[in-house]
Design a protein that fits this description.
By secondary structure, this protein is an alpha+beta fold. The chain is 43% helix and 22% strand. The strands form 5 sheets. Strands 1-2-3-4-6-5 form a 6-stranded antiparallel beta sheet. Helix 4 (102-120) packs antiparallel against helix 12 (254-268), helix 13 (273-282) runs antiparallel to helix 14 and helix 14 (284-308) runs antiparallel to helix 15. The radius of gyration is 41 Å and the shape is globular.
């Protein structure tokens, strides 16, 4: 069958909107794919106009991971593209699971780059799903069918969901609600594929299409780490951010997704993701085993390093990650058991210390109570001079009858001294230093002297001191997700940390790939209304670059500063973790946001002359 200069040789695919043929371009003498719209769509003038508009937009896209559009026509309506010798991602993944999960990230890294290129050109895909990703025989992945989903109105897509969209499982919530799609809608769909490849199942599932759409709108899904324990924390965070129900809380650009995926893969030890993917496509079982061994080795090494640094929680996570990848790994199992034993011993010791502290506190309280009781008792015995004058005291065994009146004087110590001077004491009695009457008077005088000064020195009540030492619930906030250590204890990665801290100063360290480590002190104030404390990053690290689609010798300048050529760009010093800059590549310019401490993609094709 002939279609202009194209000879249609074999039908190779069919969907709800088009039939795909393998064809031969008689003019350029090459094999092509010809996608012909179904007759019922071609018959509608509004569809033909949209097809023409979308075809013009897609034909402008030129990227190594986007299928090339060679030709198109709106009467009859068809697209002519490069012919891919391979299978769809759906077919390949069904036959070869992407396990360990880093293989899924390596596979979708170039798709994120392709979406970034398309979005920068103003083209939204609108139908990102595994059937629209082709896996070539040499391991290259390509995104297909740009703009096709834009031909139908939202309500039309749901009237024939099964035939047109194949499955609604990859739709963004705003698309379900009939709102206009934007680049963030593509990123949600991207997240569903990353989840599916990483876990072996879709994030949103239900027994009916209506229930499935409701689950997507409500964000009901399992954490990927619960589905497949070998999914790393970093990969789970990327998936979770892509799948945020609110578009404002998702990644705001595909370039951000690409950067985080690349950083995560390199941190795990996969330095060349595209080569790893190509090897996996050629020999899935062998490459999967190699990557798994690499990841386990890297996780064990990280765990050992974290133990040396005293980061027990992080080390436990690393060894647990190794066990998730290799459940029979004896080294990881032994390390996990050792850390848990150490933690149990530490908790036992801490509980024992707490009990001892309570006992000591109670003992101190009893001593204080006893001391106060003794003071009160002594004060009761030591009466005032007026009361003493009315009390009769029995004669002591060593006293003579002539001393009895002296014992009833108004001031005992004074009378003793007076009696000595006047000679009324017995000449044969002991000296003044050893007189029984004076020894009797001294203990009574001590409480009288100490009683009044004791009141100003009254100790603060213990319950009040305990209340001041009670930990407070505080929040530590950092702008981007960062790794935080508080008083030497690893608190993990997040941008908001809810902790229980005692009032007073605490030593905090903030770590982020964009910047140097930032030690800082946080002072928790008891009477503060909002217990939210802002953390700051360290000095930003230099930005690095990857330049694509540019002549190798094209000069690259950032805000007028030469950073090398397209084939060999050098790092650029940053003043902020992210900052706007004008980048010149050869004879073209572009304005972009540079990220510190990571690779920034600079696409020559996106720059303007």
């Amino acid at each position: 069958m002939e279609l202009g200069r194209y000879r249609l040789e074999e039908q190779v695919g069919q969907g709800g909107m088009a039939v795909v043929w393998r064809g031969w371009d008689s003019q350029l003498r090459r094999t092509v794919a010809v996608k012909i719209l179904h007759a019922h769509l071609h018959a509608r003038e509004d569809i033909r106009k949209r097809f023409d508009r979308e075809a013009h937009a897609v034909a402008r896209l030129h990227h190594p991971h986007i299928i090339d559009v060679y030709d198109f026509s709106d009467d009859p309506s068809y697209l002519v593209t490069e012919f891919i010798r391979g299978t769809t991602l759906r077919q390949f993944a069904d036959a070869h699971p992407f396990d360990p999960p880093e293989l899924a990230a390596a596979c979708l890294l170039p798709i994120a780059e392709a979406l970034a290129h398309a979005h920068a050109a103003g083209v939204v895909h609108r139908d990102v799903k595994p059937e629209n990703v082709m896996v070539r025989e040499d391991g290259v992945v390509k995104l297909t069918d740009f703009g096709i989903a834009a031909l139908l109105e939202p309500d039309e897509k749901f009237t024939v969901t099964g035939s047109i969209l194949g499955s609604p499982a990859h739709l963004a919530p705003e698309t379900i609600e009939g709102k206009p799609a934007d680049p963030r809608s593509d990123l949600f769909s991207f997240g569903t594929i990353l989840y599916w490849l990483s876990c072996g199942q879709l994030p949103f599932q239900a027994t009916s299409p209506a229930a499935l759409l409701r689950n997507i709108l409500d964000g009901k899904r399992l954490d990927p780490r619960l589905v497949r324990p070998s999914v790393s924390d970093a990969q789970a965070r990327i998936i979770g951010r892509c799948l945020e129900t609110n578009p404002a809380q998702r990644y705001q650009s595909a370039a951000e997704v690409q950067q985080d995926l690349l950083a995560m893969l390199r941190e795990s030890g996969i330095e060349e993701p595209l080569k790893t993917l190509a090897a996996f496509v050629r020999d899935p079982e062998r490459e999967a085993a190699r990557v798994r061994a690499l990841l386990v080795e890297r996780a064990l090494a990280q765990g050992e390093e974290q133990l040396v640094q005293g980061k027990t929680s992080a080390a436990l996570s690393s060894f647990g990650r190794a066990l998730g990848l290799d459940p029979n790994n004896e080294i990881a199992r032994g390390k996990v058991s050792g850390i848990r034993r150490h933690e149990r011993t530490r908790r036992f010791f801490m509980r024992g210390t707490a009990v001892l502290a309570v006992i000591l506190f109670a003992g101190a309280g009893f001593q204080l109570w006893a001391h106060k009781g003794a003071v009160v008792a002594a004060a009761t015995v030591a009466t005032t001079p007026q009361q003493a004058g009315t009390t009769k005291t029995a004669p002591k065994p060593t006293e003579t009858p002539s001393q009895e009146p002296a014992a009833t004087g108004t001031a005992k110590s004074g009378e003793t001294a007076s009696a000595t001077k006047t000679g009324t004491t017995n000449p044969g009695a002991p000296s003044r230093d050893t007189t029984d009457s004076e020894r009797t008077s001294r203990p009574a005088a001590k409480p009288e002297r100490n009683r009044k000064p004791a009141e100003p020195r009254r100790e603060p009540e213990k319950p009040r001191a305990v209340a001041q030492a009670t930990p407070l619930t505080v929040k530590l906030h950092v702008r981007f997700v960062a790794h935080v250590t508080v008083d030497g204890e690893d608190r993990g990665d997040d941008n908001m940390f809810t902790l229980r801290l005692l009032p007073g100063p605490h030593q905090v360290i903030v770590r982020h790939p964009c910047c140097v480590d930032a030690p800082q002190e946080v002072v928790v104030t008891p009477n503060r209304k909002d217990q939210i404390y802002q953390l700051h990053y360290g000095a930003p690290l230099p930005a690095q670059f990857r330049v694509t689609n540019a002549p190798p010798d094209a000069r690259v300048l950032v805000d007028g500063v030469l950073v090398g050529t397209a084939s060999d760009p050098r790092p650029y010093s940053m003043t902020q973790p992210d900052q706007r800059a004008v980048v010149t590549i050869g004879d073209r310019k572009m304005t972009t946001t540079l990220k510190a401490g990571t690779f920034n993609l600079l696409d020559y094709a996106q720059a303007t002359p």
